[in-house]
């Protein structure tokens, strides 16, 4: 079996449900996957199939009921501070709704994750960081928009700022949640090109959620979420890859009543961390 550290990102046996009134809505059932450095993978599934839920777990923005997320073969930490540091260091996230900070201009938005990642070192590094962020914004065609706030930018421009922000730390993993979903198709096509180009330059592994087959066709590998289960991961993989790695380990279905299962923060990941 491949050394787990060979994967930029992996998930093993993820389960996730949401409390809904008296019961629970089971969204993910025993989802496992593994992404190699530089691999571009599309996450497909109908609206409501759990794509965003899975990306949020992988991006450490939420916690599974059970199962684990691994970066470079190491289990993601449990404490909020350590999770935030790992996110700042290793991860870029592009949202469908851009999620730029409205009070900050384009340059400041791109720099924000670098400030978080560098901590005290920011003060000695800020000049070069600023130059790099500026170069990146020029690269995405926004050299003349550095001081614009999000509301002064078009949708496509905002997504390009968000893209620059996601890659400015040269992340090992780039997660994109329908990044072209709010854009017209031509603008969306440009954003996608840019995303793949920047990811390639940085050697980032990409997981791109989309329900659009034309977008998914640009990926080297397809994963499909259906009824809470992830399948098809091995089919698009280059020969010799994927089949074994995509189901890293099957975990048995949680015993007892799923409806009364563990809530966020009470899963085994937290218990062990
Ligand atoms: N915080 C939440 N509370 C309750 N249900 C949720 C929550 N977030 C998502 N869901 C439900 O979980 C399912 C999967 O949602 P989501 O992951 O957003 O799907 P997708 O991104 O594939 O459209 C949907 O039925 C959605 O309504
Ligand atoms: Mg979604």
Main attributes?
273 residues; alpha/beta; 6-stranded mixed β-sheet; 4-stranded antiparallel β-sheet; 10 strands; 22% strand; disordered C terminus; binds adenosine-5'-diphosphate; binds magnesium ion
Instruction: Give the strand content.
Output: 15-25%
Name the poorly predicted regions.
Answer: 233-273
Distinct helical segment count: 9
Rg value: 19 Å
Mean pLDDT: 85
Helix content: 25-40%
Straight-line N-to-C gap: 25 Å
Number-wise, the strands total 10
List the helices and strands and how they pair.
Elements: E1 9-20, E2 23-35, E3 40-44, H1 51-58, E4 66-71, E5 74-75, H2 80-90, E6 91-94, H3 106-118, H4 122-139, H5 155-167, E7 173-177, H6 185-202, E8 205-209, H7 213-216, E9 221-226, E10 229-231, H8 243-246, H9 268-272
Parallel strand pairs: 3-8, 3-9, 6-7, 7-8
Antiparallel strand pairs: 1-2, 1-4, 4-5, 9-10
This protein binds adenosine-5'-diphosphate and magnesium ion (MG).
Residues 18, 20, 25, 27, 45, 47-53 line the site of adenosine-5'-diphosphate (ADP).
């Amino acid at each position: 079996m491949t050394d787990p550290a060979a994967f930029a990102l992996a998930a093993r046996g993820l389960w996730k449900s949401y409390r809904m009134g008296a019961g629970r809505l089971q969204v993910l059932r025993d989802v496992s996957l593994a992404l190699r450095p530089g691999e571009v993978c599309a996450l497909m599934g109908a609206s409501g199939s759990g794509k965003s839920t899975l990306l949020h777990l992988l991006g450490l923005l939420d916690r599974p009921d059970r199962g684990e997320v691994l970066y470079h073969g190491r289990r993601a930490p449990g404490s909020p501070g350590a999770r935030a540091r790992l996110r700042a260091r290793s991860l870029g996230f592009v949202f469908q709704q851009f999620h730029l900070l409205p009070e900050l201009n384009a340059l400041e938005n791109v720099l924000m994750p670098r400030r978080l990642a560098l901590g005290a070192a920011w003060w000695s590094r800020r000049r070069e960081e600023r130059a790099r962020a500026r170069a990146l914004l020029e690269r995405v065609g926004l050299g003349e928009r550095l001081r614009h706030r999000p509301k002064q930018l078009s949708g496509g421009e905002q997504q390009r700022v968000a893209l620059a922000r996601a890659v400015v730390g040269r992340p090992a993993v780039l997660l994109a949640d329908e990044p072209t979903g709010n854009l017209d198709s031509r603008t969306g096509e440009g954003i996608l090109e840019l995303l793949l180009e920047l990811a390639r330059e940085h050697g980032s592994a990409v997981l791109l959620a989309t329900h659009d087959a034309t977008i998914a066709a640009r990926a080297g590998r397809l994963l499909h979420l259906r009824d809470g289960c992830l399948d098809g991961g091995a089919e698009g993989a280059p020969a010799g890859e994927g089949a074994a790695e995509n189901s890293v380990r099957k975990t048995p279905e949680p015993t007892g009543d799923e409806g009364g299962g563990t809530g966020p923060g009470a899963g085994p990941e937290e218990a062990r961390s």
